[in-house]
Model the fold of this input.
Amino acid sequence: MPVHSKATLTKAGTRHMSLTVPQTPPIDLLHDNPQRLMLHRRWNFTVHTTYRPGPNTGMLRRIQLPARPRYISAQAERLSDCETREVPRISLLNPLPGHKFLAPPWVEVATLLLGLLVSLLGHAFNVFQFPRYELDEGTYISSAWAILHGQITPYPYGYGHPPLAWIQLAMLVPFVGGFFTFGNAINTGRVLMLLYALGSSLLVYLIVRRMIRSRSASLLALVLFSLSPLSITYQRQILLDNISTFWLLLSLYLLIKSSSRLHQIVLAALAFGIALLSKEIMLLFLPVMIYATWLYTTPFQRKFALVAFTYTSIALGSSFVLLAILKGELFPYSWHLPWDTHQHLSLLQTYLEQTQRGQDEGSFSGSWQNWLHGDRLLLLASLAAPAFNLVVGWWKRPYWLPGLLAASFWLLLIRGGVVLSFYFIPLIPLTAINVALASHLIVSGFSRWLRLPLMRVVLICAIIATLIPYDYMQATPLFTQQPASAQTGALNWIREHVNPHAFIVINSYLYLDLHEAAGPNMPVFPYANVYFNVATDPELHDKVLHADWRHIEYIVADSEMLNDIHHNSKQMQIIQDALKHARVRQQFKAQDHDQQLLITIYQVQPTLAQPGQPKGNSGHGK
Done:
């Protein structure tokens, strides 16, 4: 309800304005009445109604000002005029939403719950079999296990990522009964990922609902985000991006609904700080999140809100840097600073090395083909919808926010360097929000042109009805293929046929299941170690294996691991030498998309050590 006032305010005397409502007893304006509306606010006065407009409240009368004296001197008149200010044209800070189509609240709640149930079923069906277990999944679930054993990671911590994401996993694991409740450690981690996926789906709905107050557009965003084949594939996996994206969406939602309330802004900043500590790449969104703070706060609170959000986010996010400073591991040892007296890890050196990673580890063109094959429609929408909203944002500023978030992440992907397929994860919810806003604006304009208000809802529901069968057809392999069965078969074979004291070179997704008993009478393999650490960690390479390949007894490798070993011939020399003297003991195969996943178990011959165990300490848990 826009309100226009032409009243005046004189500085002389006390500063107050009285508003009266017909046939209503006077009420003290300073009384905290939750039904009133704030009309205008400055540092020294406020203007508000006594009641929130609605049925049986009547209209506001003109503001009554004190009458001026009939006779007044010229000097007094000049002073009165110069100290008199006109109240500006004002609009409500918290206007009532316009409801064109009234529906009981339970209808929206039931629709939302149904959408979340479909999202949960889509992500949960066949989750233990597809996609195959990835190296990163094993790394992060093993790190969560290390947290519960008083360490940051099973191997020496190298500042590759902040540890808060797997700390969250370690906190959640006891609530589901432990690491082996669902068969193996990665299955349990994927169950926890379902919680983050479900929470992200809810936040996508609420963000769109809060921005444009459209139930149908919010449902479109929920469906597009939850049922996309790319979303189902990547959000099943134990990846830091899934955890940090949830906290990013929570921060965005708290800012949008804050209505300039300071506690909401601080909570949004804390959520964004957690996103930063879950994966450092979220720092890329900080400028746009500051713009969101500016957009959803009133002018008289804007400076304070911006300082509060920025300071809180950076203070919490920079605790990762503080950790390196306190350990004396911020600067590289190669800089030969006066206080550096021994070799050590370095946070800056780690990130400098990451920026120099080549596209042989993962290129943008290769990832683009994977995204195109997974969900062509979503990929094209991730480009078109943000571009549309950036143009519309010149007239409707809130449309800039999701457009800028998506555009800033696209700049990261196309910058060059290594780009892995799962880097697309933060773009999936941002694309859903952008598409929902753009679709709502287009169909609303079309329905107004036809003068059929219901046409907007009908058209958006038609889009949803088209998306669901399209997503199901694209996602068919996700529900039918079982590539993880080959990896599970290799794990079971090792438990049944390999000496628990043998030195085994493995990929990281087998680490935790071999280092802790999954049940009674289950063997533990303390000398099963990840191939990269076997080749590079001095504790393993020099002290345990004595730089001799003959201490290695078994190698369990998939095609990606073998490719990495042969590609880094100098770094992986000890494993290459072991492979040259090994024979195949067993192989496990499974269909993975249009390729075949092959797990091969090699036995190295001859071994220098006796069938007992290699000399020295395995070095894990450092």
Summary: Confidence is low (pLDDT under 50) at residues 1-33, 56-65, 608-622.
